[in-house]
Amino acid sequence: MQKPSYVPLIILAAVSLLGAFMPNLPTQIHTEGLDTGDIAWMIVASAFVLLMTPGLAYFYGGMVNAKNVISTMFQSFIGMGVISLLWVVIGFSIAFGDSVKIGDYGIFGNPATFFMWRGVLDGKPWALAPTIPLALFALFQLKFAVIAPALVTGSMAERINFRSYVLFMVLFSVFVYSPLAHMTWHPEGFLAKLGVLDFAGGTVVHMSAGWAALAGAMYLKRRKSHMEANFLPPANIPFVLLGTALLWVGWFGFNAGSAVGASPLAVSAFATTNFAAATAGLAWVLFDAAKGKKVSSLGFCIGAVVGLVAITPAAGFVTVPVALFIGTVAGIVSNYFAHLKAKGALDDTLDVFPCHGIGGMVGMIMTGIFATKSVNSAVAVDGLAYGAFDTFKAHMIALVIVSVFAFGASYFLLWLTDKILPLRVTEDDEKMGLDVSQHDEFLIEA
Predict the structure, then answer these.
(1) Which of 209, 226, 348, 361 is surrounded by the fewest CB atoms within 10 Å?
(2) For the purposes of burial, counting CB atoms within 10 Å of the CB of 432, is it exposed (0-12), middle (13-18) or buried (19 or more)?
(3) Is the Cβ–Cβ distance between 298 and 237 less than 8 Å?
(4) Which residues, 6 or more positions from 88, have their beta carbon under 8 angstroms from its beta carbon?
(5) What is the pLDDT at residue 231?
(6) What does the alpha-carbon distance between residue 254 and residue 39 come to, in Å, rounded to a whole number?
(7) Considering only CA atoms, which of 330, 308, 360 is closest in space to residue 204?
(8) Neighbours of 420 (CB within 10 A)
(9) How far is Cα 218 from Cα 141, in angstroms, rounded to an integer?
(10) Average pLDDT, the chain
(11) How far is it, in rounded angstroms, from Cα 52 to Cα 292?
(12) Helical (H) or strand (E) element with 182
């Protein structure tokens, strides 16, 4: 039995009490310029994006061994509670509040801007989403914040202390995810002013999670089973198939919803999302076949998710034929890096960095090459393929900056977390499995 601690419960009670008695009554609700069709679509899109987190739980849970299924899945689900609370308190403010600048460039939002969601229910619509209420925009963005730290868990699966993971999730959201969201999506943000195009989170979600995953795998080092080359098979491939289905469907909200309205741009993003996933799944299994491997359902599922990752930054900026190309390239490149990683000592349990880190970088580079204002007239720039070198240059600079920041900050936060709560479970707990050692729960197999 672990040592009792009332600290987390006291924090939750204090935040709840603050919310109950804080003067935060909405005044006049802004309705001018709002569009009911856009509102309806964005409510649905927000629900779709939230569905991705349970989808990720099934996707990851099916790939670990049977004694770690519940713990791995729960690491995704707990974020729906923890990050939701954090988003109300300061998360939304840091991501989309008034810019705290270095020179002319916004680095993060003022935590006091929307503290405890003050002014969100009755606030004016977000400048880049003028036809939906500010609260709806905040809810849509919350779902992105929920899934980002959940993605990281796959690299540290089967050996991370649950309480330590929750602490790291909070620190990652506050100091890595939310500042990157501000820099990329706030009009005053550093990367936005640099000219970086990220339609739905290739840098903010996938590169940040991918580099954090690499930091986690390096910091926690290898599992005992990995060192002994005593691997257990995936617990449940049908779980992976179900998770892929939920992610694929949810990703339509992720990408098409980032048009922040029921518009032709949303349709275009919907289409590019589907076709990039399809070609990446095919590219993954065909690349396997070219190396003499059998075509596997697991391979297609992983490839499809890589395609969804890679098209995310480009979804609202490229044509459907380009989406086919992005999916194909991402599937092959990520497969190659996953194969390369398997030959080394790095124990990224579920290949999060090859899939999300590499996939996100491929998508970012491709956006800098193939973005066109003919698809998205709101962005009056083209990519390198259409003669605009500056766009490509901005993306390459951002790729380096985001990579260094996300990896360096995540590694430091892992070190800090480890000093407060040991990150890694004991060897006995790892051998027993995290389902039992962390949660006293069992997976009953038929």
Answers:
(1) 226
(2) middle
(3) yes
(4) 19, 116, 117
(5) 63
(6) 15
(7) 360
(8) 12
(9) 30
(10) 94
(11) 33
(12) helix 178-185
In the 8-state DSSP scheme, what is residue 160? Answer: B
Q: Residues near 326 by Cβ (< 8 Å), separated by ≥ 6?
A: 276, 307, 310, 311, 314, 318, 362, 363, 366, 370
Burial label for 14, CB within 10 Å (0-12, 13-18, 19+), is exposed
Return the structure tokens found at 125. Answer: 């619509």
Q: DSSP characters for 423-442?
A: SBPPHHHHHH-HHHHHH---
| Average pLDDT rounded to a whole number, residues 96-121 | 95
Query: In the chain, what percentage of residues exceed pLDDT 70?
Result: 96
Q: How far apart are CA 316 and CA 307, in angstroms?
A: 15
Give the separation between CA 51 and CA 406, rounded to whole angstroms: 25
Handedness of CA 307, 94, 169, 229 (dihedral sign): positive
User: ∠ CA(374), CA(184), CA(302), 5° rounding?
Assistant: 80
How far apart are the C-alpha atoms of 295 and 289, rounded to whole Å? 6
The pLDDT of residue 326 is above 60: yes
- Residue 446 pLDDT > 50: no
Domains of the chain, earliest start first = 35-439 (1.10.3430.10)
pLDDT > 90? residue 31:
no
Which has the closest alpha carbon to 134: 97, 84, 107? 97
Return d(Cα 109, Cα 239) in angstroms, integer: 39
Which tens digit of pLDDT belongs to each residue from 414-430? 999 999 999 999 999 99
pLDDT at 277 over 70: yes
